[in-house]
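Below is a concrete protein record.
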Amino acid sequence: VYNNRADTKWHFGKSEEALGNVEAVKDLYQAALIDINTAIELDSDVALFHHTRGQIKAALGDYSAAIENYKKASEIDPDYTDVCKDLELAKKALEQTKGGPTED
């Protein structure tokens, strides 16, 4: 339930971002983060939950935390391939913000 709520808020945030409503975006992402943190507290062994938290962290510009969450999702479920693309995107984004290559 909490993952679904977080995912919905994340998607609404993407819509608001497209409309340029920065404050609404931040609020939705923060609300989504609260929900996904609750989901992880209830069951920390679900790769999807960590992937979702990674997406939210990336949307908030916290690429280091996004990378940690994507790696955790891959660790929990090595066959969860959806996370691979997001992991690489977060690494590139972090590299661009810091001006150098990221560690693996």
In short: The two ends are 33 Å apart (CA to CA). The chain has one domain: 2-98.
